[in-house]
Structures are given as C-alpha cells and as structure tokens.
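Q: Predict the assembly, please.
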Amino acid sequence: MAEKRIRVLVAKPGLDGHDRGAKVVARALRDAGMEVIYTGLHQTPEAIVEAALQEDVDVVGLSILSGAHMTMFPRVQELLREKGAEHVLLTGGGILPEDDIAALQKAGIGRLFTPGAPTEEIVRYIRETVVSEN
Amino acid sequence: MFDKKTLEKIAKAKAEWDKKAAACTERDALFETVSGEPVAPLYGPADVDGLDYDADLGLPGEYPFTRGVQTNMYRGRLWTMRQFSGFGSAEDTNARYKYLLSHGQTGLSVAFDMPTIMGRDSDHPYAQGEVGKCGVAISSLADMEVLFDGIPLDQVSTSMTINAPAALLLAYYVAVGEKQGVDSKVLRGTIQNDILKEYIAQKSWIYPPEPSMRIITDIMAYCAEHVPKWNTISISGYHIREAGSTAAQELAFTLADGFAYVEAGIAAGMDVDTFAPRLSHFFNAHLDFFEEIAKYRAARRIWAKRMKNKYGAKDPRSWLMRFHTQTAGCSLTAQQPENNIVRTALEGLAGVLGGTQSLHTNSMDETMALPSEKAVLIALRTQQIIAYESGVANTIDPLAGSYYVEALTNRLEEEAEAYFEKVEALGGVLKAIEKGFFQKEIADAAYDYQRKIERRERVQVGVNEFKIDDEKVEIDLLKVDPAVEAHQKKRLAKVRAERSEAEWKKALAGLQQAAADGTNLMPHLLACARAYATLGETLDVLREEFGEYKEPPMF
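A: Predicted assembly structure:
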C-alpha cells in the first residue's frame, strides 16, 4: 500500500545566512522519501507561512542560528494558527539554549534539535508525529 | 633528502614491510582525513620524492614562505590572541572588550549582530528579534563611539567581521579615531570585506557581485593612501569550511577568491604592490591535525608562487600570506559540551604549528549560545597554555620534513591547482558562483560528512559513541538582555533628532552622486558617518543605486 508522502517546508527565517544545517536536513528528509521544499534564505515569518499553505505541507522546519528563535518560532506559530493551519507540525533546530527550547515546547512548538542531532532522529520524529496526527 | 642508493634500499625494505603490514589485522575504522582523503599507514622518503628544499620550502620569512612569513616567527612575537566577541548593546560589548584586554588578550575582534551585518538599522522591521543577538548592534557612529569608549585606537588592533557594509564600518572606525585625535594613518586592524565568500558560503550579502567588487576596490585604493596599516580584505576560508567544505576546497576556494580580488585591483588600474601587501587571510582549524597544518603550509606556498609569477608582484610583502585562524565551530557538539575545550585545544595547536599570525579559540558553549565570560576565559587560557607551557612556540615550523606532512602539503597544493583549473574553465569565480558551483561542492561535502557520522563510520565522541543518556547541560549560558532592542531604538531616535539635517542630506546626496558616477565611495561614506546618517539610511542609498542580490534556493 502506497503511503501518502509527507510534505515538509524547510525554512530559514530572518537575516541569518547559516544554511548548512537546513540543507543537510532537507537532503536527509528527501532521501527518507519525504517531499521537501526549501524556502531559501532571509524569509519573513509571513512568507514562510504563505509558502506552507500554498505547498500544503504537513511540517514546517525552521533553522535558526542567529539567536532570533524566541521571536521567530512564536511568530510562525501565531501566523499558522491565524490561517487555520495549526495542524501543521512546527519543528526546527539551530543554536538554541536548553531553557529556550523548554519554553518554546511548553508553548506548543514541536521538538527542537541542536548541533549533533542525527538526521535519522529528525526523520523518525517527523514520521511518528505526522502519522499519529493524521 | 637521501642519495639514490639509500633510497633504493629504503624502498626495498618498505616493500617487505608493506607485505607484513598487509598481513596484520586493522581496527574497524575509517583511515581517512576529516575531509575524506585516504591516509596510508606509513609515509617515507618515496612519498616526498622530488621535494626541492629551496624551491618548495625555503627558510622562514623567505620565498615561498612555506615555513612561515616571519624570519623568527614566535621567537620574536607570539601570535595575536584575538577572541571574536560582541553581543547586546555597544555598552555590553565595550565592557567585554575591557575584560578581555585586562586578561591578556592582545587584539580586538568585533562580532556584529545580523541587522548590522545585513545593513539594517535596529529599528527596521527585519531587525525584529535579531538586535544584539549574535553580535553587537551598530546603527550609527554614535554606537561605534560607545563601543570603543576608553579604548585608545592607536594602541589596539581591531578586526571587524563585516562584509557587505564593511566600507561603512571602516568609515565609522576612522571617524571614532578622529574624535580620539588618532590619525587614520596609524590605525591598525582588519575588515573582513570578503564578499565573494558570502555568495559562496556565509550568505550575508546586500548588493550583486559587480558593484560589491567595485566597493572593495574603492576601499583598497582609499586605504593605500589614507589608512596604510589597515588590512583591507581578510580573504576567508573559515566560513567555507563551516558550511561543510573539505580542507582542499577551503584552501582552493579561498585562494581563488583572493586571486579574484587581486585581478579586480589590477583591472581597476592599481599596481599590484600598492594593495597586495594589505590583503590578509583567514582559515579554519578543524580537527584533522596534520591535514590542517599542511593546509596552511600549502596556502602560503601557492599564494607566494602565484603572486610572484602570475601577477608579477615585486614587493616581497605581496608574496607572503599572513592569516588569522579560528577553531572549527562546526566540530563542536551540544552533547557533553565540556569536551569542546579539548577539541578546541587540538585545533588551536594545529593553527599554531601551521604558523598563524592570530588565533581565536572557540568557547565550549558555542553550540548553544554566545560564550559566557567563564567559557571565553577558558578559551583564551587554552591559547596561553599552548603559547607558554607546551613548548611548541620555541622553534619554527617543527613539522617540516615530516614525510606525512610534506606529502600532505604537496597533495593539498595539487588539489587546489585542480580546482583553480575547474573554476577557470567555468569562466572565473563570479561565473562559478552564478552557476552554483562552489555552493554545490560544499553542500555535497557537508552531506557526505553528516552521513559518515550517522552510519557511525566516523566517531564523534558523545554524539554517536560514548554517549550519556538524558544528560543535563551543567554550564551557565550567556543571556542577551532583551532590553537591548528598545535601548537601541531609543539611541537611534536621539541620533536622528540631534543631527544637522542639512549636513545629513548633503552627505547622503554626495554618496548617491559618487555611486552613480564611479568616484571613490570612501570619502563620502566618511562624510555620512560624520553627519550621523544611520547605517540603514546610508546603505539604502547604495541599495537604490546598485540593487540587491537574491540567491536561487537549492539544497
């Protein structure tokens, strides 16, 4: 039986240009059989949510290494809710202090990954979460 | 090194040894460098066959500078210990600089926040949430005055990691000097100003490549006359490596960029010897100890040869490659972060054995946040232990003559030359960027590296081996004061209210005129700085004139 392919938007919000992690994760998700759309750099939260809706994705993954995570994650979450897309899993990674991760997860954002996280763990997490939600 | 008869004898014995070694069982491990290059079990005279001491190595301070750029290297003066730092407001960072200087740091290195790096004022909508987060926020000369308050600019050298807006930040620095009564001719320091590697790896650009190159040649021409001790470009491999490249790619792409600047300077009508002595370099120090040392040695040799033979430089200072080194942020792990101290020590040692002129050692907590005061002090102490306790600074280029290191140096030079040919075939660096050549090479290498770790072919301590389940991070992290954004907005409003409107208008109009008619931008940027035009206002004039760069997304 052919399963529906999970669609993921990998996004780089804000002014941060560090794209190594985003690209590696995008490739790994694609190699794991997911449909991956990469926004490219320097996106506003509005543009990211717009792309998520247009592409009808199951998952939005934000990559932030510039320290702006406490602004960007809540903003994207808020916009997804406003547009009635709260079913989309919002996850991501980057240079994120433990306390901030805890605060973001408490606010309902999905798992957040830090340097050294195996991509297979990210793949597993997305599969399990998206499947259980559907 | 040996006569023919001795070499034959050694070769014969080696052939016997090879058989014995082949019969031994090897560990289940990948015998290759961090860059994925195979490593032989043993290196000997045959691996450096043809090495010509005078032509390939020479003496320290002499062509081709393989063994170092100064005659007595660290016997004369140790490398500059230069910790890159900046966070929050100019006040916060000024306090950190004074702390570092009081603990024996010998040069300053400014980290700017993302809005500054991208040429936006702290109150721009795109700056929201980013002000002061990964560096210090500088939106006008007023911020710069606070940043260097109480730090006499004639007594420190300052490196500024800034690229697209580099010309303007240099203008701010010169203007702060003026206010302190320091002549621009005595200012010492570096602006990174390496826009090519931004398109290739770091991705902090504003303008398209052509006007960006024009800004750079304007800086080179201006500094040759007015700021002669300033390093006008720090041609950087660091970010290329951090983005995932191999050592050979870092070496080749960096030098290709360097030669592109040299060609641009010559094309702008300058004599190569007027600007080349002020070009400096910046490399990564990754974990593969010998490969890194060989990389620095190969870099010096390639640079010297090409500058002399291809570009016709006659001043020996144009031939010698001076470089800064930073340990590899990408080698650090969020797991068991204290282990990062050890990684950094090994990497810093490679930089020193490779003959670096200055060094930044990363702090253990940088996979989680900007470094705390304690973490950065340990990182600085790491350099001091290398310098004063390890004994490696007693003698120059101690690994020269090592069969392995010399063979690696040769191999890296050959790989770099092969890349230069590819880039040339694509039509040069700018064309290769346009075609996404470097970007794809780097993305491929990054993915390959990650897969080797995930398949456990490469061990990363604490990540895929020797793990601690449910570990808790037990180090205190730096928190940037969230009030910084409001604080910045307030100072910006004050600057805008208090400046002379007439002078401000005149300065911006002058800049616009120069941008359009091709006269050197630097005097006009300086006028904008003095008139307290903000960073965003000033760079917007050039945005209007030059347009903005967009990268097609790919992964």
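The first strand of chain B starts at residue 80 and ends at 81. Chain B has a mean pLDDT of 96.
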